[in-house]
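Subject: sequence -> structure tokens, single chain

Hey, anyone have a minute? Need the predicted structure for the following. Not urgent.
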Amino acid sequence: MSGPAATLRAAPWSDLVHDPLFAMGYGEIWRDEAMALSRDWDGGECHAYGRGRSFGAFVRDYEGARVPLLRAGTVHPRCLVLLVLAERCGVLP
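Reply:
Had a minute. Here:
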């Protein structure tokens, strides 16, 4: 997919991947760290963090290797494919 349709489709993923709490949750899966929820986080922050952990577990199980979230400031192409697949599998509510 290219052109305007790809731009529209990638925008929500870009927002998610650029969220530091999503990236934190994703990274913790690869470092085998326990959940680090903060009492100071609101519901949206907890949700972004949890989605990052869920996505990290999905990538680990599906891909077997860590996939970078970003490349040159945009969503890495392989990450984008895995995000769409994870959503279709119900991993990213």
